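Data deposition worksheet. Section B asks for the primary sequence of the deposited chain exactly as it was used as input, without tags or linkers unless they were present during the calculation. Section C holds the resulting structure in token form. Section D is free text for depositor observations; keep each observation to a single sentence. Incomplete worksheets are returned to the depositor.
Section A, Depositor: J.P.
Section B:
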Amino acid sequence: MEQSNKATARRFLEETPDRDRRPAYAQLCTEDYLEHDPAMARETVGRTEAARTYGELVTAFELRHTPQSMVAEGDLVCSRFTIRGRHTGEYRGLPPTGGTFEVTGHVTLRFQGEKIAESWFNWDLPGLMEQLGRPADTAL
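Section C:
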């Protein structure tokens, strides 16, 4: 089961060829999925809101998540990842800069059956903002 969960986690993190994870939320996550991410406007959101929020990010930043390592134990999968992108669209009042960035993060995913039921993301939002020439404490 742990290897199967890791494969699902990798599919979820790597997005699709068009760099859009929104369909993966419906395919790979439970209906009552919860996502925790202190970088979001609301730290905890459900599946629909998580997909919408991610859609805003991928549209504005042309994101690409790359898992660097994964560890699985029981119903949990933890991954260290890199996020790369280019700021090509407006996001929460921040006009596109055209700048590129590379930051790191980690996530813990909790599985229920074969689907992701909950996630805890933590990634370097201040580093992203600094690389785009914005103060590190500027909230997205």
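Section D:
The mean pLDDT is 89.
The CA atoms of residues 46 and 140 lie 19 Å apart.
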